[in-house]
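Hey, why these numbers?
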Amino acid sequence: MAVIDRHSPSRQPRRPRDVAANGARLAYDPQGYEMGWIGAKVCQASLVVAMVWGMGALKGMFLPTTLGLLPLLMISGALLLAPRSVLMQFPVSLSILANIGIIVASVMWTIDEFASTTIVRGVMPSILTMILAAGLLTMKDLSDGLLWGVRVIILITMIALVIDPSTRTHVSDDIYLPDYPGWHGFFIHKNDMSPVLVFGIATVMTFDKYRLTRWGTLGLIGVLLLGSTSATGLSAGFFAVIAWYWLRIFRGQRDQRNSSLFLSITVLGFLGMMAVVIASVATVTSAYGKDTSFSGRTEIWEAVLQFISARPLLGYGYGAMFWRNPANVETAEIVRLVGFPAAHAHNGFLDVAIQVGLVGAGFFLVLFVTTTRTAWSRLERQPEIAQWALVVIAGNGLMSFSESVYSGGWLGIFAIMKIIFMRREVFLGGPPRRIFSDVGIQRERASRYSSLSS
């Protein structure tokens, strides 16, 4: 009978990719450790497809909504490969469940059942796929998946601009608006593309460690933002870059006193800048080529608030307003009040409130606030992840003043951030420790499981 050496290399545990060759932990993450190469790659591929579909990179092609099921089917295969130990570690967030629940339930009280059913069926698989990927993958695999999602979206958009002239301008409907410039690729509108590009800035600057791909991708994002001629997108992109470098400087402060002083000076400077902007709003809007109504947005906000007050609790149904504009009486009335067809509420929280009411807006606000608060509190313990989350939130937050950036696949992005912080809080618990051997890794992992089972 052959004798197996218990200390032979074949008996040694696999080294997670998040652990350096010398055994020091870079970002050790037990979640996804046992997924295996095939399972991890399937999860990453499904995340990329979910980002492309859920964030609207192909929406202008008007493909069948049943294609939105593809990423969920892909990641379902990865779930079959996932060991029970991985599935048992999956974090559960009540705020995420509440947001998903009210979106799906809104089909029961919607003013346009066909519209709500179609949109929920189209976007919900992508949201669920992002949530599953965030819970199954290691942080390294998840960040690589997010990077590839950004790159694929940029590639699709660049190809669209080359092969289809209509993706380089917005064609007139011959009733309300003339043709106007603005690259948008296969996105419906340039202001649908811009938030994705701002998200790409935060993702690439944080996770892409290779100089060539990092600066190449950022260069393409800059070109697309300039070609979009979106004042909101350009401002948010610039703001995201500033926020990223500001957070890096803030993290570099060596003591609490310096950090507090730096933060206080920044807040005072920001408040002073906002005071100047408010005092000279006409000049600022003129510089952006806008009027003081922000291209009719104030009229849209007024009309939307009027309709929210009529059905404040549960809203009009997810995706029911503005869809097939103006297919229903309520949307037609908004068009009459505003004087032109609005594509959406042109404000992040108002858009959520008119669809799923103040209850749904409250659920999203809880998700937004808790994720932001956790990201800020983790700047010292998990600086890279926290910085990425805060820059995404800041960039989208700026765009949310005039664009609807909290619906569709964006709920999946917020869910990713929430789940990352939840799982690392549960399984890493305290400040990072260095682990100097594979045996140490296994001992820590065993201690985590034993603490959970006790």
About this structure: The two ends are 39 Å apart (CA to CA). The beta strands are 169-170, 180-181. Residues 30-430 form one domain. The longest strand covers residues 169-170.
